[in-house]
Design a protein that fits this description.
The complex is a heterodimer. Chain A is mainly α. Chain A is built from 14 helices and no strands. In chain A, helix 12 packs antiparallel against helix 13. The chains are: A mainly alpha, B alpha+beta.
């Protein structure tokens, strides 16, 4: 199909509101003395990661755009830009986000890009902006291909992706407890996403949703936040740097270092890149499955509870 | 949005938030005690069996001895990070010890330690785990 369509870049337009919301959250926490923690260098690192991510989009966004426009030229379908088309695209894009996000936690190559978002030991609105600088190199833009081939214009697909990202901003907070039951049942919420950011064994690899939590319930990855096991934020092996370059590239450095080890087979080298995070050829590291098993060995009473097969 | 305006918003926003947080006392480092260092180590390495914890007099770090070998825990902003020392290079400096972790996610760390503390730490770091 051919055709010129443009939508606003919602992530750029949202910048003033994001800054205002961060200030409001911090003031609320400072006044109420509850609802989260802020640390100067952690917050600044997150904000710089967010700015860098926007810059990466400006510099390298043309690659995804070129691919999607190439597919748009091929497809005979055109869903148009009616309200229904936008709504359908938004829901499909959220399903796309779920699977990309799930791959982002289960394939080290994609995790290398996403890990920085989980690298803060804090959980506040600045954490939402701790976004990747290397998303283009994961080639996950190909997951958008089916939507374009179905007849959704690339501009509409990217617009919905931007809206999805904006929605996820406000759920990065401890200032909001739980929302009404109907909302928690359908939508991704601060409570669900706190669990996703938990490094506790219970919460590893859960709640990948962007906007609708129903995807996790449908695909068996939903774990509700537990009051007796509050999420402990950060990585299983926390990074020791506030340097944005180290935050952005540390897992890539780890992949290439592991792949270059002497004495490995080709299969082992490839597994260091594409197996789940924590893979090692000699069993010296643990994947999330191993971490959960080790936890259950220490705490057998947790077997069958949420996150441990319950 | 014009690029100049976006740039001004981003730079102004980041700077303003940094100044506000600093003035509000959010730049304070964690101070480690034996108890908090033990808890923090087990938070990072829940499978470890900690045998001894030696917090530095400054409170900025702690040497943690485990059945698997020594590790270093140190203040990282308001939180902590830890690394086992098995793969690390440790050397004396004029004011304390320098740790190189051979890990891109953990750049080297220089700690100021008084002479007696530095000697004790070096001795324990170089002692095989089963003898510690």
């Amino acid at each position: 199909m051919t055709g010129q369509i443009s939508f606003p870049d919602v992530t750029q337009l949202a910048v003033p509101f994001l800054i205002a919301a961060i200030l409001a959250e911090f003031l609320w926490i400072a006044l109420k003395k509850r609802g989260g923690r802020y640390e100067t260098r952690d917050a600044v690192t997150s904000l710089i990661m967010g700015a860098g991510s926007v810059a990466e989009g400006l510099l390298l966004g043309f690659i995804a755009w070129a691919l999607l426009m190439f597919l748009w030229e091929l497809t005979p379908l055109d869903m148009g830009t009616s309200l229904w088309a936008v709504l359908a695209c938004f829901v499909l894009d959220d399903l796309r986000y779920y699977w990309v996000h799930r791959l982002g936690h289960r394939v080290r190559w994609v995790w290398a890009s996403h890990v920085n978002h989980h690298s803060s030991q804090h959980y506040n609105l600045t954490t939402a902006l701790r976004q990747t600088w290397t998303g283009t190199f994961t080639f996950m833009m190909v997951v958008k291909a089916p939507m374009v081939l179905l007849g959704f214009h690339p501009a509409l697909v990217l617009f919905c992706g931007g809206l999805n990202l904006i929605y996820q901003f406000w759920i990065h907070t401890e200032a909001v407890g739980r929302l009404p039951r109907w909302f928690e049942a359908v939508m991704n919420t601060p409570s669900h996403h706190r669990a996703h950011h938990g490094r506790n064994p219970r919460y590893l690899d859960c709640n990948y949703a962007g906007v609708f939590i129903i995807w996790d319930k449908l695909f068996g990855t939903f774990v509700p936040e537990q009051d007796h096991d509050r999420p402990d934020y950060g990585l299983v092996h926390n990074i020791a740097s506030f340097n944005p370059l180290r935050v952005a590239f540390h897992e890539w450095a780890g992949i290439f270092k592991d792949m270059a080890r002497p004495g490995l087979t080709l299969k082992q080298r490839l597994l260091y890149a594409f197996a789940p995070p924590g893979y090692s050829h000699d069993g010296s590291r643990e994947t999330s499955a191993g971490i959960k098993a080790a936890h259950l060995a220490r705490h057998p009473e947790d077997a069958g509870t949420p996150g441990f097969g319950g | 949005m014009p690029l100049e305006l976006l740039l001004a918003l981003v730079v102004g926003g980041i700077s303003g938030i940094a100044v506000l947080l600093h003035l509000a006392g959010r730049s304070r480092q964690a101070v480690l005690t034996a108890g908090s260092a033990r808890s923090a180590w087990l938070r990072h390495f829940p499978n470890d069996c900690v045998t001894k914890v030696l917090p530095a007099a400054s409170g900025q770090a702690a040497l943690v001895l485990t059945e698997g070998g020594p590790g270093l825990l140190w203040a990282f902003g308001a939180d902590t990070v830890g690394r086992p020392l098995a793969a690390a290079r440790v050397r004396e400096t004029a004011s304390g010890l320098r740790f190189e972790f051979n890990d891109f996610s953990a750049p080297g760390l220089s700690l100021s330690l008084p002479d007696d503390e530095r000697r004790q730490w070096l001795e324990l770091i170089n002692t095989p785990a089963e003898a510690a």
